[in-house]
Structures are given as C-alpha cells and as structure tokens.
Amino acid sequence: MTAKAFQIDGHSLPCEASGERQIQFPIMANKKSESSKTAEMMFPGWENDARQIEKLAKALSAAVKSKAIGKPDFAKQIEEANRLAAQINWTEVRGNIEREAKGERDRNEANLGSRREKLLQAATAARMAVQQGSQFDLVDIFQVLYEGTAVAVKLGGVPFQRIAETDGEKVFAKLRQMRAGLDQVPFQRETFFKLLKRAHGICRQAQPGGEEFVPVRELHREMVFERARNSDRFRKTGEVKSIEDYPLPQFIYDLARLIRDGAVVGSERILTQTPAMRESKEMVHIPNLNNPTSSEATAARLAIRPA
Q1: Residue 284: beta bridge partners?
Q2: Do residues 196 and 223 make contact, with C-beta atoms less than 8 angstroms apart?
Q3: How far apart are CA 232 and CA 220, in angstroms?
Q4: Which of 15, 22, 234, 288 sits between 20 and 30 A of 277, alpha carbons compared?
Q5: What is the C-alpha to C-alpha distance for residues 56 and 140, in angstroms, rounded to an integer?
Q6: Contacts from 46-54 at CB under 8 Å and sequence distance 24+?
Q7: What does residue 178 show for φ and ψ, rounded to 5 degrees?
C-alpha cells in the first residue's frame, strides 16, 4: 500500500497505510507543575504551608460572607475552616517564617556592611575626607546614615537626599554628583553677603525689640525672596513659578562658602549663636570646607555686626 505523509510545521512525516505506526508527539511540560517544584526547591516547607493557609483563608472568607448575609451555609463552612485550621502545624509554619526572616536579615546585614566598606574605600581612594562613626559616617561634607537598603544624606544636619542604592561605589558616585551640584550654583562672596544683610534686616524687623540674632531658618526663607527680587526672570514675569529653588542645604553650603575665607566681609562681621535647649531642632551645622571632618559651626541664630 502507498505510504501517506502528514504535514506538521511544514515537514512531511511518513506514516504507513496500515495505521499501525503512530506519530509520537513530544509531551509539553506542565509549566504550573514545574513552577511549583521550583518554589518547593527555593522555599522548602513553604509551598505546603502556603497552600494550606490559602485553603483556610478561602474557607474563612466564604464563611464570613455567609454569616454577613445570613446564609444557612455558614455552619458547614465554618466547620470546614475549623477542620483546615486543625491540619496546619502552626508551630512549624512560624518556625519556617522565622528561619527565612533571620536568613534574610543576615544576608541584608552582610550586603549593607559591604556597601559601607566599599563607600569608604572609594572615598579614601579619591582622597576625600572620611570619618567613620558608630551612628553615621562623614564623607566629605556629608553625613551618611544607613537606613536599610537606602542611604540618607544630610548636609549641616539637614536632610538632603535619600539614595536607594546598595552598591557602595554607586553611593559614592552619587555623593560626588551632589557636591558638584552644590558647587554649580553661582556664588559671589560680596553679592551673597549683600543679599544676606538685606534678609537679616527684614528678619530683625519681625523680631521682638529688633533682636540682632535671627533664626537661621527664617533667614533662609527671606533669602529665597531676596534672590527672587534680584532675579531678572522674576522681575520680568512677576510669577511665583519663576522663583528659583533655593533649598536649605544649598543655603547652608553657601554660608560655608562665605565664611571659608573668614567671617569678616568688608567692615562687617558675621556672628553665629549656639542654640538654647528649646531651639535644638532649629539649629544647623555650617561645614568647614577647608577641613570637612573637623568641627562644624553650630548655629541656630545669626547676626551681622560692625567688624
């Protein structure tokens, strides 16, 4: 008899006319089954725990709904939930969870320790000032605090940026970008002092008795307006959206740039006042740009006097 051929995916497969010879097709793997096996290998004990708890959750959900609307199925459903709950070894479930949680904590601590070490190594290699502390590290002019998988960066004791990065070298690269961004803001010592003096005078008018020491944070807010008044863009439009951002960390950095060459400008001197206990939340730390890890100037208030 003449043999026939079947066309499969463009290929001819011979088949005897008697029909006794059969074409064997490859059996497709059960993806769900493979996924389940993979989960069991990755989380031994967890897969069964998850299935049992999922069944219990569904049974309880059905029972709650039945009770809410007064369905007679509630009694049967709550008994089923009770039966499922009795089948679960809760001590074992909790042990599995605690074991995995501890393992994850240990892995995170090891990773974060490595991040800190690489950050400090990169900064040291770049000849940047570094000082390791118990609660935070000083890298250049920044305070670096490690908060889980993120790094909180402060400047002058004021929150600056959060870096969501676990690689120490990448954190260091980001710190360099932040420092470069601060330096890119135009600064001219005499012009800055002129604006500062105007802002200081306006703040004094609001002080009881014209007190000469004004809060640094209030001085910063007034500096935002002084910069706007001297901005061609703002004077042209008069719109609020044309006021340039001037965040507190930048103001602190500019104060540091101002006093880097001394606290005297022309015939006047800048004075800072350490905070009283009630003002501790208002204080800032003006970094020493000549020696970043040395003592900073702690200030809550600032005054301008004749030199």
Answers
A1: 299
A2: yes
A3: 20
A4: 288
A5: 56
A6: 46/96, 46/100, 49/88, 49/92, 49/93, 49/96, 52/84, 52/87, 52/88, 53/88, 53/93
A7: -65, -40
Tell the burial category of 216 from Cβ atoms under 10 Å away from its Cβ (0-12, 13-18, 19+). Answer: buried
Backbone angles phi and psi of 20, in degrees to 5 = -75, -25
The first and second tokens of residue 157, run together, are: 């004791």
Checking phi first, is residue 62 left (phi over 0); if not, alpha (psi -120 to 50) or beta? alpha
Q: How many CB atoms lie within 10 A of CB 50?
A: 13
Q: Residue 97: helix, strand or coil by DSSP?
A: helix
**Cα–Cα distance measured from residue 130 to residue 293, given in angstroms and rounded to the nearest whole number:** 7
Q: Which residues of 6-42 are buried (b: 16+ CB within 10 A; e: fewer)?
A: eeeeeeeeeeeeeeeeeeeeeeeeeeeeeeeeeeeee
- 215: tokens are 């809060």
Q: Which amino acid is at 252?
A: I
CB 211 within 8 A of CB 178: no
Q: Which of 206, 238, 240 is nearest to 222 (CA)?
A: 206
Structure tokens at 298: 């702690």
Q: b/e map of 68-90 (b: 16 or more CB within 10 Å)?
A: eeeeeebeebbebbeebeeeeee
Lowest mean pLDDT among 5-14, 111-120, 164-173, 275-284: 5-14
* Collapsed DSSP state (helix, strand, coil) of residue 169: helix
Q: Can you give the pTM of this predicted structure?
A: 0.68
Residue-by-residue DSSP string for 34-92: HHHHHHHHHSTTHHHHHHHHHHHHHHHHHHHHHHHHT-TTHHHHHHHHHHHHHHS-HHH
The burial of 145, by beta-carbon neighbours within 10 Å (0-12 exposed, 13-18 middle, 19 or more buried), is given as middle
Nearest Cα residue to 292 out of 127, 152, 118:
127
